[in-house]
Amino acid sequence: MKILTFLKLLLITISFTGCIITGKNGVPNGGAAMIIEKPVWLSGIRLDDDGYSSKFPEAGENEYLKTVSAGYWLENTNQKKSQLIYNFKINIKKPFANKKVWTKMILSNPSDENNNIIYTHYLEKKDKSTGGTHGTLSNVNINKKYNMILEVYEDKDRTKLISKLNQTIVSPVDNTNGCIKLNRKFKKEKFGFLVDKKNVLTQEHLIVWCDK
Question: What is the CA radius of gyration of the chain?
Fold first, then answer.
């Protein structure tokens, strides 16, 4: 049973990361770095199937709107490895009375707390969901709370508020030094155990490869 569990965790790790490298360039002595080939989802809200997020905020909901996902994509972009991208997705539970409404998405700015990231758009009655992405992000602090807000207005000038969804997230990732540091529970849950020859790598010796 232990062997089967070990093989399962190892398989998850290999399929999740793409490849493993050892050596210099910031890799801990006796450790390894994972190169991410496909985008990896890092939820900032609680997911029933993911133990690492068990104490994270619940998905927000009001009369009109409900959070579907809120957190980060970890992916290779802009010719750099392991970058962080905000992602906020909201379902529209019921259509607004107006044929067209105007939105404002407000995201906490990890690099400047006094200047939020703001996007404006609109919704029509046929729309079933909304949201957006933003990246790349820097200075994201692990275990820190950030806010993702969607405001819906009756008018284009955005003076008559109809609905507001305020979603708090907790960051399971850190890139304050330019490289990626993952929540320890996330690493254990998603990556399992990695073996270098006959030695099992500890979580402290396992990092995500990045380009500073």
Answer: 20
Q: Shortest CA distance to 84 belongs to which of 72, 95, 93?
A: 72
Residue with tokens 């820097």: 138
Place of tokens 């002595």: 29
pLDDT digits (tens, 9 = 90+) for 38-94: 899 999 999 988 888 999 999 999 999 999 999 999 999 888 888 999 999 999 999
CA atoms of 149 and 120, how far apart (whole Å):
12
* Residue 98: burial class (beta carbons within 10 Å; 0-12, 13-18, 19+): middle
User: How far, in whole angstroms, is CA 200 from its chain's centroid?
Assistant: 28
The terminus-to-terminus CA distance of the chain in angstroms comes to 42
Query: If you count them, how many residues does the chain have?
Result: 212
Residue corresponding to tokens 């049973």:
1
C-alpha span between 89 and 82 (Å, rounded): 22
* All residues at 6 or more sequence positions from 209 whose CB lies less than 8 Å from its CB, including other chains: 21, 33, 34, 35, 36, 81, 82
Cα angle for residues 76, 178, 174 (degrees, 5° grid)? 85
**Tokens linked to 33:** 């770095």
- Calpha distance 22→20 (Å, rounded): 7
